[in-house]
Amino acid sequence: MAEGKEKSRTTVSIYGQNYTIVGDESKNHVHDIANRVDDKMREIKSVNPYLDTTRLAVLTAINVMDEYVKLKDDTAQKNEDELNEES
Which residues contact 22 (CB under 8 A, 6 or more apart)? Predict the structure, then answer.
């Protein structure tokens, strides 16, 4: 947390449940992230309609983490390629 910055509370709805998120990010950022999680859960549920909420949440977390790691790896590879081109 940045010094002197006060934490804010933001209530969001994800897959029909309300959550209060406490943190340093803007309310708009928190709502954006919550909306993306909600969208991903609904996307997965549409393909797997018989999943219970717990399994749906875990599959959503796995999918989001997979996307994150691939993006992180792609970015690292591009940075490495750029460094090699400069050499």
Answer: 7, 8, 9, 10
